[in-house]
Design goal:
The protein contains no helices and 25 strands. The chain is mainly β and 342 residues long.
């Protein structure tokens, strides 16, 4: 019998060793298993673009299970803010945004790399302030400005190419935010085009502020359906979540500090979760299955703050660290978000 002596086993880029899931049985002698604790499931978050107030081209990254400041993750193809993003376990995709006018650009990042955007294709029209959501295979870009629209488009994340029509939302709106399970994308808040009778929590001085939540089934095509209402109204909303729970936070015009949540598989109104450390608008979020990060935003000036919440519980946000620059209108994605199958 031949003898093999192996010092280490890693993936191609050397960043991680093998992962073993499920029930595993070892037989034989001479095998010593490594020991040591883990702070949580792996997961990389990326924060791209934004304004501080100048438009930003750079991207930051963090490991979600840790705390601390960010590392560089390369650049977008151009300085941009108010984009949307979606992601799989291997690829992050950024679509739309303002440079400062709305663009139709879609580009992608390889999550295992050091960053740097690659051309993906184009949206069917220029969109700023869209929402994003995804399953493991399909990404969605929903609603937007230029002008306000109810249009929903989709891409296949593993390929490249232009976005295709998916359907329409319940109303035309912008500056909302999306979260997802592997089967369902849910979008909350935003700025609508009319004062809606279904929007009883609207700020009387800002009647276009929406509290509505709607949803689509990601694997199909079709129009969005009503889900329920947020506890507050506003645009510039951020979101995060895991495969069971979606979380919405912040919003304009009042720069409120409210965090509320929904159970994605059901329908119904959002429930209070806790508070941000300060009022915020135009922040965004990324997550693994346990922890949601809340990054950037403004009140009233752009901020570099990153906070986190434990998704399965309720409570106020806790300090995580800082972005490399202030980022209002940042877009965030991760390789372990709620839309990805476990």
């Amino acid at each position: 019998m031949s003898e093999f002596k192996i010092t280490s086993i890693t993936n191609r880029d050397g960043s991680h060793g093998p992962q073993i899931c499920g029930i595993v049985t070892f037989t034989g002698s001479g095998l010593t298993l490594p020991s040591g604790g883990l702070s949580g499931p792996r997961g990389k978050a990326v924060f791209a673009g934004g304004a501080s107030p100048n438009l930003q081209i750079s991207c930051d990254t963090v490991e979600i299970a840790t705390t601390g400041s960010t590392a560089s993750f390369g650049n977008l193809s151009a300085a941009r803010s108010y984009s949307a993003s979606c992601s799989s376990s291997t690829r992050g995709v950024v679509g739309g945004g303002a440079e400062p006018s709305a663009v139709s650009t879609i580009e992608y990042f390889t999550m295992s790399s050091g960053g740097g955007a690659n051309d993906f294709g184009d949206l069917s029209f220029a969109r700023s302030y869209p929402a994003g959501a995804n399953s493991s295979t399909r990404g969605l870009f929903l609603y937007a400005y230029a002008p306000k629209t109810s249009s929903i488009e989709f891409i296949t994340i593993a390929t490249t190419g232009d976005a295709s029509n998916f359907g329409d939302g319940t109303v035309k709106r912008q500056s909302d935010s999306g979260t997802s399970s592997p089967t369902r994308a849910v979008v909350g808040g935003g700025e609508g085009g009319v004062f809606n009778s279904h929007n009883p929590n609207a700020n009387a001085s800002s009647p276009f502020a929406e509290n509505l939540i709607d949803y689509v089934t990601i694997a199909t095509l079709g129009n969005a359906l009503d889900f329920g209402d947020r506890t507050v109204s506003g645009w510039g909303v951020g979101s995060t979540g895991n495969d069971t729970r979606g979380i919405f936070f912040g919003g304009n015009p009042s720069k409120h500090d409210v965090i509320d949540y929904i159970t994605i598989a059901t329908t119904g109104n959002a429930t209070d979760f806790g508070d941000l450390s300060a009022g915020n608008g135009y922040a965004d979020g990324a997550s693994n299955k346990i922890r949601g990060l809340i990054a950037g935003g403004s009140n009233p000036a752009a901020t570099d703050t990153i906070e986190f919440v434990t998704i399965a519980t309720t409570g106020d946000a806790i300090d995580f660290g800082d972005l490399s620059v202030n980022r209002q209108g940042v877009t965030a994605f991760s390789n372990s978000n709620g839309g990805l199958a476990s």
